[in-house]
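Handover notes (outgoing to incoming on-call)

Open items:
1. Spherulation-specific family 4 protein: sequence verified, structure written out, both below. Nothing else pending on this one.
2. Nothing else urgent.
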Amino acid sequence: MPYLTPTAPGTASTDIRLGFGIPGYAHPLMAPVEWAELTRPGAPLHWVVLNVADGPGARPDPHCLEAAGRLRNRDVRVLGHLDLTYGARSFGEVVSDAHRYLDWYRVDGFSLGRCPTERAALPEVRRIVTTLRALCEDAHIVLGHGTHPYPGYAEAADQLVTFSGPWSDYRWSQVAEWTADYPPERFCHFVHGVPRGHLDEALRIARWQGAGTIYFTDRTDRGGAADPWEAMPGYWDDIVSRVGTGVSE
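Spherulation-specific family 4 protein structure tokens:
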């Protein structure tokens, strides 16, 4: 059973108002239905990641420009995907990609994929985040750890992805105790391979563990051969109705 976070004012609670963070659908040419659904009125979207070609690509993509524009017209945050490769990418490469996202797609912030988790890497991640905020006023920054990092990372960004993986792991997962010191809107959970019959259980776990932004899908990685986030869940309408309608943030 999941570890239940202590309930404190402004922190974990079963009354959490959940919303979706979209980790990154396939290119709009390959996933036109998915991108069109993101402009549905009332869908509880917190943000959508735009990943053109493992980053911004070499030149502006007209299809991605159109998709990003439609989302902005609906007041949905669009975040550019920046791959930190667990600290292996240079500062200059990351900042260069950020410039292209801003120049071409006018993104509202960034999702830093494969973010390091250890204490030693925190100063460099802080340096990157500080630079991104200088480039983009009011930038929304999400650190994509996929697991619980050293607690200091919570002060470096707007949100942390503290779980990203299969349902078989999520249903027995435990939350780090230090997360109870922060409100649910600081944490994101991405879970693939969630059967339709277990959606209510998955939503309960997210609330118990204090995650305010989620993305659940029945898609799987098929042994690592596919990206489960690129296609819409087969139960998209169902999960939208369960999470509830609301305005995009």
